[in-house]
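Here is this case:
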Amino acid sequence: ELADVVHERGDEGFLAQLGHDLARHGLRCEGSAHRVFPEQGLEQVPLVEAHLPLLQRLLDAIDLFAAEPATRQATALRLGNLNNAALLPVLEKARQEERDAGVRAVLTEAVYKLQLLAPAPQVRRQAVAYFGATRAEFALSRLRELVPQEPDAEVREAITTAISTIERYLQ
């Protein structure tokens, strides 16, 4: 629960127990309540406007393990569209533990979307291959944007192939 993470403490107001970077530390789920905590590195952070993005990331991580599939699915979709590769560890953890096939599919797409930003060319190539194999129409605009930016020739070729595959499927 949020109460496990955020609590009121005297005149200091609300404090959040946050890690320096939730994605970097990884997350674990405990028990049937699916409470999410960083593995290590907790610190007290005053909840001021500058810390709201950190708190939002924590709330998103909690929502990825919510009881309601619709909440998990909506959160996975939103996080996959943020273009923030630092979210990969929490999305991968959620995907590993997800039992609902529909939510797992959205988590898989979110992971591959973020892998398009990975530093390793083989990871980017794998993500491109996924979108080509699934003929994901929603990925077309993103793949087109990536072609001129892609530094690796093999990945650039894979992107072009995936775009062609998707376009042929849509015709």
